[in-house]
Amino acid sequence: MDPENQPGNGEVAGVASAGDGDVDPRARELQAMAAGVFQPLPAEPVAGDNDLSPARVDLGRMLYFDARLSKNQDISCNSCHQLDRFGVDGEPTSPGHKGQRGSRNSPTVYNASLQIAQFWDGRAADVEEQAGGPILNPVEMAMPSAEAVTALLKSIPGYGPMFARAFPGVDDPVSYENAAVAIGAFERGLLTPGPLDRFLEGDLLALTPEQQEGMRTFMEVGCTTCHTGATVGGQMFQKLGLVKPYETADLGRYEVTHQEADRYVFKVPSLRNVAETGPWFHDGSVGTLDEAITRMARHQLGKELTPEQVASIATFLGALTGTVDSQYTARPELPASGPDTPAPDPS
Question: Is 140 among the catalytic positions?
Answer without folding.
Answer: yes
